[in-house]
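Continuing the batch. This is chain 6 of the set; chains 1 through 5 are on the previous pages. Same settings as before, nothing changed between runs. Recording input and output for traceability.
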Amino acid sequence: MKRFPWMRFFVFTLCLLACLMPVQAQEVARGVVFHDANENGVLDEGEEGIPGVRVSNGREVVVTDDEGRYEIPVDDDTIVFVLKPRDWMTPVNGDQLPQFHYIHKPEGSPDFRFTGVEPTGPLPESIDFPLVRSEEPERFDAIFFGDTQPRNLAEVEYIAHDVVADLIGTDAAFGVTLGDIVFDDLDMFEPLNGAIGQIGIPWYNVIGNHDINFCAEDNALSTETFQRVYGPPYYAFEYGPVQFIALNTVWWHGDRYTSRLGEEQLAFYRNVLDTLDREQLVVLLMHIPIVSTDERADVYELLSEFPNRLVLAGHWHRLQHFFIDEENGWPGEEPLHMVIPGMVCGGWWSGHHDEYGIPHATMYDGAPNGHAVFTFDGTDYSFEYISARRPRDFQIAVYAPNAVTRDKAAETVIMANVFAGSERNTVEMRLGETDDWITMERIDAPDPNYARLKVEEEAIRAALNDHDIPVPDMLSRAIPAPRDSSHLWRAMLPVAPVIGIHTIHVRSTDMFGQVHEGRRLIRIE
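Output for chain 6:
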């Protein structure tokens, strides 16, 4: 057989280069998850380890032994974190942010515009996680903020006055912001945390596409500032009987983002699910909805093993339910329920300012800005949307003319925007107290009031432009263009109603059996 000496030299050179290439050093982190009886954050003599607690490095998930000890591999860019178990709580800082992690980054973060993690030095001999006892009931409320997204301190103040103030003193167990915590300026993390911290409950945060370091060359370094402020960009915790898993669905390519999880995060997700009872309620938390994520088929396949599940996401500035079925890639018989539960910033803090100097910030589906309250009870859940600075029972906007002649009544369309409504709602209307209820028809169409706001705003802008008058601050940010709403219903008035002033009643019964009502007056001439 003919020999090629140059081939042997080529193979030798490749092997030599491979040996000389830098290899990420693997170490083993060790520590104790312990009952912090005196709540000083330090493992003191006599304080006991807690067995059966899950600890992760962002990929593997290990469980503490009978003495609360764990071991897990790490490299020079690892966050070790505990998965809070039921009836235990991690410490929180002054802004109520849960402290459940240790960052091992010996060299620290690169020198980015927004500060990342300072060098952490050598791996400690023991990374210990304190927990305190905290009894958690089967039934509890949790608050969810879609995109808070302030771009400056003025918008942080909108959040404080428009939403936070009314939540101070809530009996909810905890809160979550579902990404786009801020709007590109990561220096807004701290002042926003200070405002939300006034609510007084533990507050978790999911990373969004406006929360990353855009100066990073690739995805690996895109979450450095988020890590410094909040910890791991994906994680999990239990509260009561519910397993919550926060995922990072943002992938930075150096010049743009897409939605994907990556192999390590997918392994973490799989490993967390492997530790659960299949009957447990699993709630996925994310920013970009899973339907847009590259590995959605893998996520669906694993989640379909759990009959009790829910997905909550942000990103799309509307309020909408999705029932993901087999036609859309879901492998189970019963559709997967995903909710975009409304936005704190609504339509990006746009629109006319009110007498308090706060924009109306209506979302482009006609729903007002606000927040969501989910009630969890065992494996069941229900949901209400709370509009900013409105009564809790303001759930429906009813649209009708102020007056109509009696002979035109049957041609008059009545519309109702049921803010948290879905295709599983039954919506009915009646005129006055005695008429029978009429079933309303759900339609996909723009919200009529929002469309009016957009037309009026454009007319004002055009008039100012015609006279070379600068646009005032209260109109400096145009509201988004109207889009079809998924929670709009319509019906016609009854034929030949009695002349006089009447109340239009609209009644909605949602998929959870909750009944809400809206009203509007109309004059029949």
